[in-house]
Write a structure and sequence with these properties.
Layout (H helix, E strand, L loop, with lengths): L5 E2 L5 E2 L2 E5 L1 E7 L2 E8 L2 H9 L3 E5 L14 E4 L22 H17 L3 E4 L1 H9 L3 E3 L3 H4 L12 E7 L4 H5 L5 E4 L4 E4 L4 E6 L4 E5 L6 E4 L10 H10 L7
GO molecular function: hydrolase activity
Protein name: Gamma-glutamyl-gamma-aminobutyrate hydrolase family protein
Keywords: Hydrolase
Amino acid sequence: MRAPQSRTETGLVSRPLIGISAYVEPAGWAVWRDVPATLVPQAYVRAVTAAGGRAVVLPPDDADADVLRVLDGLLLAGGADVGPERYGQPPDPRTESRPDRDAGELTLLAAALAADLPVLGVCRGMQLLAVAYGGTLHQHLPDVVGHDGHRPAPGVYGSHPVRFAAGSRAGAVMAGVDRVNSYHHQGVADAGGLTVTGWADDGVVEAVEDPTRRFLLGVQWHPENDRDPRPVTALVRAAAGDRGVV
């Protein structure tokens, strides 16, 4: 594994390479109008860079996971819903999935787990982790918790209290934090083989992890949009080979 500010054979400074899963969505700029584009919010890149890593954008691709040979960590970004067929449920009319992302990210995740590569799942990414570990999702949280607080309005983030399990990785990473942002309409119903280590005040799962691995953490909120994106920083440190990372 690469270490932050280590020197390569050419004498250049090497940073941990963090793959960030991306969307394919219609977009327009300059002379291009409404064309399919590989996208990821700059906030993810900015958070990785600020933590000392180098961001590598990964378009959906389920042909293989060979790119992981050159990566030091994997960040499963937020986005559209995970397809409910992946966890054995019929689709709710309000579920909007992206099969290409599911296929590509699950291919990457399987290989990352086999290699014990550090992994951080954000929002959709956390939900994908749960599904990969045999869990299930609530397809529309307001039906479960009785309110829209986790996604107050289109494009509007909510904020709510959060608590973390004592002695957990999530608790160590987020020490002193008692509120997080929120923008999602689905949530983890059953974490499968993962350990739930964070909860909102209404009981919604906010953090999951696998304590048997070097670093595998899922968070339901969007740390890349916080001024103190601790989970992203922890991922980069783990990817750098810092075995002392909390």
